[in-house]
Design brief:
By secondary structure, this protein is an alpha/beta fold. It is 35% helix and 23% strand.
Length: 175
């Protein structure tokens, strides 16, 4: 008898987006959701993200891909850039779900050292599957690395997770 995992993913949306964009490719969120399910047994995937009305089509798309969005009201800095710090919301949701025994293991998607306490908490309770870093080894926080938990780097999965650009007919003269 095969026992299916009931794992949850907790995704820092801004960290994921900025990390992948830094490598110069775009994440296919639909593929990413399927990959999380198939590779890590993720049944429920939260994305914590700032709420900016002009991105409503993006939010709709992410929900259609199977993500549950947890919104944070944004504020605008002196430079006019939005700031929607979701760290505390992600930590609170993960800890609450762990205490309520809603999942077997958690997958944390971020490179941010602010999550090292959460990672330690989950590790101590045998509730952590892995950390998925949107940044490479050099930019993944040393605080996360010091927890000695499994860390996988999403750029290593670029061929699977990136948006596939369609080439023009006969662009490579093989038509």
């Amino acid at each position: 008898m095969i026992i299916k995992e009931k794992n949850f993913a907790y995704i820092d949306g801004a960290n994921l987006y900025r990390g992948i964009a830094g490598f110069g490719w775009e994440l296919d969120y639909a593929r990413f959701r399927i990959w999380l399910s198939e590779k890590y047994g993720v049944k429920h995937a939260y994305i914590f993200i700032g709420l900016i009305p002009r991105y409503k089509e993006l939010y709709k798309y992410l929900q259609e891909c199977g993500f549950t969005l947890i919104f944070k009201e944004v504020i605008y800095g002196g430079d006019g850039k939005p700031k929607g710090n979701c760290d505390a919301d992600l930590v609170l949701q993960a800890v609450s779900d762990a205490y309520e025994n809603k999942f077997n293991k958690a997958v944390i998607v971020s490179s941010d050292g602010d999550y090292s306490s959460l990672v330690k908490f989950l590790k101590e309770r045998s509730k952590l599957k892995t950390v998925l870093s949107p940044h490479n080894k050099d930019f993944c926080s040393i605080l996360l690395k010091r927890t000695n938990v499994p860390i996988a780097y999403l750029n290593d999965q670029k061929s699977i997770l990136r948006i596939q650009k369609e080439k023009a007919p006969d662009a490579d003269r093989t038509a």
